[in-house]
Amino acid sequence: MSIVLVGSTSGSVTLQEPAVAGTTVLDLPAASGTVMVSGNMPAFSAYQSTAQTAIANATFTKVQFQTEDYDTNSNFDSTTNYRFTPTVAGYYQFNSGVNASPAISAGGQLISIYKNGAEFKRGQLVSVVAGIGAGSTVASQMYMNGSTDYVEIYMFQNCGSTSTISTGTFYTYFNGSMVRSA
After folding, report:
1. What pLDDT shows up at residue 81?
2. Neighbouring C-beta atoms of residue 46, cutoff 10 Å
3. Residue 38: φ, ψ to 5°
């Protein structure tokens, strides 16, 4: 069996099996831009492995994700800036969850995605449960230019005193992946 790619002057490509009459033909229309394959679509997943303590009251504080589950293109900094800086331009999906344990029972917490040092999307404010703490999430898609854009996660809590961010892959995490090229 042979498979043939047939190009046209319009830029489209057809995949066909010429030896079998009446077979299904797959047409790939002409497109501008980059054809994405799994090897050049950056993705990462990181989590907080060392407790981040003394999260100030009523202040946005950067969350430190020190351990990577994976980082397919080495774009996540888990030692210095705790941020993702993709080197491939496109549209990305980001997700994060942060759990914290405040020592008091009043107030709430939220997390936000920051792009290039400014708040981009805010998660919902979650009330603190006495003796347990709170967990909040945020998710969003955004365009990243592939050179200077970066994303980080910040936490805000207003419980009246400092809090401590919980550690572990299921408590405090940050992940993202490219969903479409630019």
Report:
1. 98
2. 26
3. -55, -25
pLDDT average, residue stretch 97-116:
86
The tokens of 17 are what? 């099996």
Residues 63 and 153 both lie in one domain: yes
pLDDT band at 111 (very low <50, low <70, confident <90, very high): very high
Structure token pair of residue 40:
């050049």
| pLDDT of res. 17 | 62
User: Higher-confidence residue: 106 or 26?
Assistant: 106
Q: Do 54 and 77 contact (CB within 8 A), yes or no?
A: no
What DSSP string describes 56-87?
A: PTTS-EE----EEEEETTS-EETTTT-EE--S
- 133 plus 85 within the same structural domain: yes
Structural domain boundaries enclosing 53: 38-181
DSSP state of 38: G
Its pTM stands at 0.79
